[in-house]
Amino acid sequence: MSGMSLASSAFATRSFFPDALSGFSGAVFAIILLGLSLALMFYGRSIIKGLAFLVVGFSGAAFGLAVGGVFLGVIGAIIGGVLGFLLGGAVGLLLVNVGMGLALGYFGYLATRDLTNVFVLAVVVGIILFFVGVAISSKLLELVTAVLGGVILDGVLVFFGVSPLYAGVISLVLAAVGFYVQFRKRCRGERWRQM
User: Fold this and answer.
1) Any idea what the Cα angle at residue 41 is, between residues 127 and 142, rounded to 5°?
2) Cα(170)–Cα(4) distance, rounded to whole angstroms?
3) Dihedral pair phi/psi, residue 162, rounded to 5°
4) DSSP tag of 118
């Protein structure tokens, strides 16, 4: 990217694919990213929560397995592994909400600090936005995953030769539809739980 200005049209429309990925390997990578983008747009909330549950759950299982094995042998290892997985998975789901709150609070802190140069006000705004982020994290998660899927899809379409304008429009429309699908799915789930 040497010699490329930030204001140039080549930089603005440049794909996030590395230059080395061309030919068959680039096409395979693009097809994998196409699947990932569609999955994020239409099932992103479920995917993120599922991954958080599994990753932290397996970490908890490893810890429970080791601790249970030390105290109660094989039976303790089995019980510790299962309980550690379930407890770790629950913590992972909680961390998704806390992570969304932390991100919103931190960016709110930075924006307020940069706009006002008043540290105390920036901290207060950051704390308030942390709690707002935790409270609305499920809605934010749907929006963030749909937008991220749309950005990835845009890069894939440009890689396959679709003009940046058409790629942007297609990505925007599919991201909006994906957000709507995730939103409706969550609303149906909330309605079902209230019965």
Assistant:
1) 25
2) 27
3) -75, 140
4) -
Among residues 21, 58, 111, the alpha carbon closest in space to that of 66 is found at 58
Q: Percent of the chain scored above 90 by pLDDT?
A: 42
What is residue 16's DSSP assignment?
Answer: S
pLDDT at residue 15, rounded to an integer:
53
pLDDT of 13 > 70? The answer is no
* Residue 24 to residue 2: CA distance in whole angstroms: 26
pTM: 0.68
Structure-token pair, residue 133: 């982020």
Tokens 């901290």, located at residue: 123
Contacts of 6 (CB under 8 A, 6+ apart): none
DSSP 195: -
